[in-house]
Amino acid sequence: MLYFAKKSAQVIAIVISIACLLLPMASTGQETVNIKQFNQVIEQVEQLKKTDLVRSLKQLTVYEKVLTALTIEQNLIYFKLLAEIQIEQNKYSSAKKTANQGLTIAKRLSSPSILISELLYLKGFAFESLGYIAQARKEYKKGLEVAESLHNKVQVALGLINLGAIAYLTDDFKRSLVLLNDAYNIAGQTDDEELKGTVNSELGIVYSYLLQDEQSMVYYQQSYLHFKKAGMILSAHTSLYNIAINHIRNNDYQQAITVFNTIIAESNKDSPSDSMYSVYSGMAWAYQQKVDSNPEAAYRYLLMAKQYLQATEKLDYQLQFYYDQAYMLYKLDRFDDALVSLSQVEKTLANNQGLSLIKKENYVYLIELKAGIYYKLAQFQHAFQTLSQVIILTDKLYENEDNRSIAQVRLKLEGEQADKRNKILHHKKDLYNENLRAATLANEEQRFYLIISALVALAFAWVLVKLLQSQHKLKVAANVDTLTGVANRRSLMKQAQQAFNFTQVKQDNLTILLIDIDHFKDINDCLGHSTGDKVLAKVAYIGTNMMRKSDLFGRFGSEVFMVCLPKTRLKSALEISERIRSAVSQHSWPFNKLEKVSVSIGVATLADDKDLISLIKRADEQLYQAKASGRNKVCG
Asked: What Enzyme Commission number(s) apply to this enzyme (predicted)?
């Protein structure tokens, strides 16, 4: 018995020892299987995160406990995907931390990896979304340097897109267009639908800032198609949102509501809170601004937007919500509640010195709304003091506006487009010359036909150049008054309508001046039409030189000029008008029997006008008043 007991004990000990050896091996074997499946799972996560963020995150985080068994490259892929998902979920602080973890591991690499560039971009976007623009720009630049060193076209384009976005966020529209157009050209050389969707979306935003709504809409629609082709439903919804906002800018509120409803119908529990906040907030504005305005419905949609507000880390959204809420409460005559909403945001905005022009404008709107509320509450002293603050802030806001003139950007765009056409012609010429050198002529007959073909090609190129020149001349002729060199009535009305639409959406100021040359018929009758034409041209020259580059000056009719002054209140407009009147009156005219020319000016600032024609009509009434009171006067 003792022998068998000992023998049994020995057998049991051996079995236990073998089991102890086998268990780690089994565990290690299980980890090996998981690691081997890593690349396959990553591909699934890449596809799944386009439509289902929760499931993609669940599949990815299975590897959280075995990261030490993965290679450095696999770790970087893990942290990159995790940061991307967190950004889609609007968890920007978490995404910044995750990207940092990946970048720390990347220091162990023996050579640079394109994953470093991607992680830097993700970290930069997290900073940008949290409002830290300077830090975002720094990360984007570092990411672009890595991408350029590795000659990776897609990542270079993404870096240019990121920096282009930073440029328009800081009001540098010229630089933004240069960067984004470079990215657009690179994207066109790839098959990356996501990249094409992204750059089209960003170009749409810039053109929207530049009030070129038709061009903006084209880019938004292209971005939507590219994202749909890439299977990126959430990104496609962002493009639809931008399309809806474009409809709002053009006062097509019902169409905007239709697009918003499409997004809401296709959304699910994974739809980012930032996106859903924007959609419901946009829906609220559409109901508020449409012809048959419905303030109650607008406020209900704004409260629906509020439920997504707590899930976002974007300070801009929180500030915008309280401003929107104050405005809509004001429209509902709930003035005390509106003041409470304004107090939530006013202090934060007032202390922030790094605001872009657009955010500074919003600050002015906020103070102006506050003045309106005080007026409604019959607190006239408070209303006067607050309105005085608005005037001071507005003067500061636009004192350096000429440095980033939208008109200059548009002019640069036209130049760039002409350069692109020239490059295409040069490219075709080089291609033709190359083919010509490569061709071998078998006999004189081939040489003869080749010469004829070359002559035909050159003739075609000459005709093409002439057509382009003619088109340019036609474009200028269609928009410029040939006598005075300023915008003609057609161009003037089109641009003024765009400014009016933008002003309506932004709840901004807009002023119209109508300038009439006094006794112009007498000048024509007594001194001749050639002298009258010279007077017209000189008055146009004097007036144009007194305009800011954002202002519109054009010939409205015979001897009448119209000026459209965006973001200008009545007081400033009257001062500008007086300067124009005085300059014309004091000008020395080099014509016999013409000692003095004067102008009468009517001024009207946007109030309750439903359309541009109504505003112009009020300016015309003021012009009539100026003429009736003796001419050479300004009335407004």
From this structure: 2.7.7.65
